[in-house]
Amino acid sequence: MNITVIGTGYVGLVSGICYAELGNRVICVDKDPRKIDILNAGGIPIYEPGLKELAASNREAGMLTFTTDLQDAVRQSEIIILAVGTPPLPNGEANLSYINQAAIEIAEAMNGYKIIAVKSTVPVGTNERLASLISDYTKERFDSISLPEFLREGSAIQDTLNPDRIIIGASSKSAADVMTLLHIPLTEQIVVTDIRSAEMIKYASNAFLATKISFINEIANICEKVGADVTKVAEGMGYDRRIGPSFLKAGIGYGGSCFPKDTSALIQIAGHVDYEFKLLRSVVEVNQDQRFNVIRKLETIFHHELHGKTIAVWGLSFKPNTDDVRDSPAAEIIQHLVDNGVKVKAYDPIATENFRSIYDINGVDWCLSALEAAQSADALCLLTEWEEFSRVDLGTLQKVLSSPILIDGRNVFEEEDLLGTEFVYYSVGRPSLN
Ligand code: UGA
């Protein structure tokens, strides 16, 4: 099939490259000439393991091209996939101006029947509104599809090529059949439904996963007080197939470009129909507070005298294997420390540059290695579970720290790892070790 994907962010780029990998002819379009130049030069404007190589092989095979020319791309394709950003507005609602603009441009370029599928996460009813917007600008026939995306950053290729399910919300049976044919090589678990339900499935899925995380984080906070171990509690719960083991890792809360944005948007969507989503409001509140779990521990350790201390921070991205720092809990933690007179020494394997370009936090010492950050620090806070951190020699780490205090916000280390060291070790929802 001939496919145009509009938007080369995470979702658009990964999907476009994977559709090409499946044997389709794909044109990826972006308004930003800088991104298209990088892609045409063989680079990738985002960090995603394996994506560069997959793009290169499909470009060589002539199945994948990158352009800023939306009109030309639309004319050559039967299927147009919209994957432009829908970032949150200050009130939490999704900003639909980019997707509206792209829809108008598609309409103006249309030269015959097209299937127009929306992969961007959009509030319920948006696909129908976009269809009517497109009809205002063209007399050509088209069908609308809601095609929500479930890939995770850092494992985006694996998630796209081996999805748990594909959701197709369709305005016609024939369009649903074409989209089913496109996705059947990926999975047989294809749910064909109406457009509004498909839009809702995306929000409900992300809200549910966020709920699992906030739930286990609250259980962790209680575990700390009653002397239980949340990793054991989660394991014990997870064997129940009705609960499942995933998304029960306690830590400093979820971040990234999806859960914070989509939970706020769903609260707004509910509000518009006079429904107060109380449970989800609490999920967001718990998540917001959970990042202070680390700060509270520091305050206890230093008897509320953080001023003048040097604290090392390991990890700036919202999770490992990505340079994405959007809504990363690390930002608020570091800002809080700096505001309280702490000298922060921070290190991340790849996200430091991104972090600095987004968050304007003065007075942080940006380090080039994990040990450099730890050098002479009064305590170390681990905020992102990069594999690199679990491989650090704890004997060496202990020697470079000014005092061997480790606050593990992601439960990376086990008791056995610390045997033979003098670490005072605090983690989330597990007994501390002295
Ligand atoms: C999330 C969803 O998992 C994807 O299915 C969805 O497609 C995507 O949002 C999206 O809407 O585009 P992503 O934000 O890339 O994907 O990252 P996740 O791996 O889901 O992690 C989100 C956050 O939750 C991270 O900060 C992570 O540290 C945290 N988390 C995750 C936990 O604290 N505990 C867990 O058990 C799992």
Automatic annotation (TrEMBL):
Active site: C258
The organism's place on the tree of life at top rank: Bacteria
Known catalytic reactions: UDP-alpha-D-glucose + 2 NAD(+) + H2O = UDP-alpha-D-glucuronate + 2 NADH + 3 H(+)
One Gene Ontology MF term: NAD binding
Binding residues for NAD(+): D30, K35, T86, T121, E153, K261, R326
Sorted UniProt keywords: NAD, Oxidoreductase
Pfam families according to UniProt: UDPG_MGDP_dh (PF00984), UDPG_MGDP_dh_C (PF03720), UDPG_MGDP_dh_N (PF03721)
A biological process from GO: polysaccharide biosynthetic process
Binding sites annotated in the UniProt record for substrate: F150, L151, R152, E153, K202, F247, L248, K249, A250, G251, G255, K319
Top-level enzyme category: oxidoreductase
Pathway listed: Nucleotide-sugar biosynthesis; UDP-alpha-D-glucuronate biosynthesis; UDP-alpha-D-glucuronate from UDP-alpha-D-glucose: step 1/1
EC code(s) of this entry: 1.1.1.22
Domain UDP-glucose/GDP-mannose dehydrogenase C-terminal: 312-415
Family indicated by similarity: Belongs to the UDP-glucose/GDP-mannose dehydrogenase family.
Name by which UniProt lists this protein: UDP-glucose 6-dehydrogenase
Organism: Paenibacillus endophyticus
